[in-house]
Amino acid sequence: MFFFYASLIIAIACSIITERTLVGYNDVHWSIKLGTFLLFLAMWFTPATLSVIRRRMWFNDVLYNFYADFGYICFGFAFILFVLIFVRDGLWFSAYYLSGRKAVLDPFNIGLLTKMNIATVALAVIISAYGFYQAVKLPQVKHLTLYSSKINNEITVLQINDLHLHRNKPVKDFAAIVNLANSLNPDIIAMPGDIIDDSVGQLVPHLEALSNLRAKYGVFVSPGNHEYYNGLIPSVWQMEQIGFRVLSENGYRIDDLNLYIAGIPDNPMLRKMKEYPNLFDGSLPYDYKILLAHNPTLSKEYMALGFDLQLSAHTHGGQIFPFHIMVKLVNHYLSGEYKIGKGTLYISNGAGYWGPPMRILAPSDITLITIKPIE
Q1: Which of 15, 167, 201, 369 could bridge across to 40 with cysteines, CB 3.0–4.6 Å?
Q2: 190 and 303 share a domain?
């Protein structure tokens, strides 16, 4: 209920501000003003509305998928428009007062305000369309090269995370990601969480496509917070059924590579937990040690346990600017490579998206990490 009421308060506040700015000062009929407010209220309230519809199963799959796609696009548009209005008005009022209140810059001029509103809405539409394209296109392949004296031969690890498999997302998009991943011919595929974002019973074709992932030494998964939200036990069971090795407070040694890969699940209720007694079971002191930890927040503590490389996800690189700022403050890290002590933390933006099908200044990616011996 907290999520519902918090969403309602935010939706009402943002809708009032948007309505007042766009039509509140114009000489238009009150019904237009009310309609504008209700329209933006519906846009802002989309996540909470979808949550209720999904739990109560009010719509069939076709209708739900349509509403989810359309609703989240509208939600993203409303957010982008709100940010543009906020930034625009801040700059506009600053310029007006710094110029000595020149009439040409008067923000209280209704004619000028109307023109600025039209331009702002048009810009929001363009940015939303660009963000949609960035979200649904095939992820880019990033490359990272690391060096270690613990290995004798080159190892390639392909990181794929934050796919957010959901019933309203086309199966063909995930099949394309699988084909791209297989074309890179990695030794290991590492998936640090948020692969599943729906009831597994609704994801049969999606998981069938994902089951075609291939790596010489296997596919390794550690659960993210969305696996918990959608049922950890069925999510883990289903991933094991399609041939993935799920790591949850434990690890697995690949003898041929002198490499040990472990996983810490992102249990939202236990995110401050730092003691995992079985995390290194089966490892050897000279192994190159990789940790899959969905949430990067406790990276310093995890790396201090003796890992050489931590692969994390969760942040989406911010997904939609300016969320980057909030995401960085909450998680301490945002995206890319960070040196922590003697080890490395790497955070991928993720191959999918959550919520609005939009990405702005945070393109989707999968990362091929090459670990080379020090000669």
Answers
A1: 15
A2: yes
Same domain, 353 and 268: yes
* Helix 30-44 vs helix 61-98: crossing angle, to nearest 10: 120
Angle at 61 between CA 191 and CA 166, to 5 degrees: 10
Same domain, 227 and 84: no
Residue type at 296 in one-letter notation: P
- For residues 53 and 98, state if they share a domain: yes
Same domain, 175 and 36: no
Query: Do 167 and 190 fall within a single domain?
Result: yes
Calpha distance 185→302 (Å, rounded): 29
Q: Is 23 in the same domain as 63?
A: yes
17 vs 349: which has the higher pLDDT = 349
141-167 pLDDT, tens digit per residue, is 999 999 999 998 999 999 999 999 988
Domain count, the chain: 2
Domain containing residue 171: CATH number: 3.60.21.10
pLDDT in tens, 54-65: 666 666 666 777
- What pLDDT score does 24 carry? 75
pLDDT band, residue 92 (cuts 50/70/90): confident
> Residue 232 is encoded by which pair of tokens?
């950890």
| CA 198 remoteness from chain centre | 15
Last residue of a domain, one of 135, 156, 177: 135
Q: Decide: helix, strand or coil at residue 54.
A: helix
Q: What sign has the CA pseudo-torsion 124, 130, 131, 133?
A: positive
Which residue segment(s) compose the domain that 34 sits in?
Answer: 2-135
Predicted pLDDT of residue 18 = 85
* Spatial CA neighbour of 286 closest among 255, 320, 246, 248: 255
Residue 34 and residue 13 in one domain: yes
**Token digits of residue 243:** 């041939």
Strands 250-254 and 259-264: antiparallel
113, 135, 157: which is the final residue of a domain? Answer: 135
Residue 310: φ, ψ to 5°: -115, 130
* Residue 16: predicted pLDDT: 81
DSSP state of 164: -
Contact by Cβ (8 Å): 15, 46 = no
pLDDT of 202 reads 85
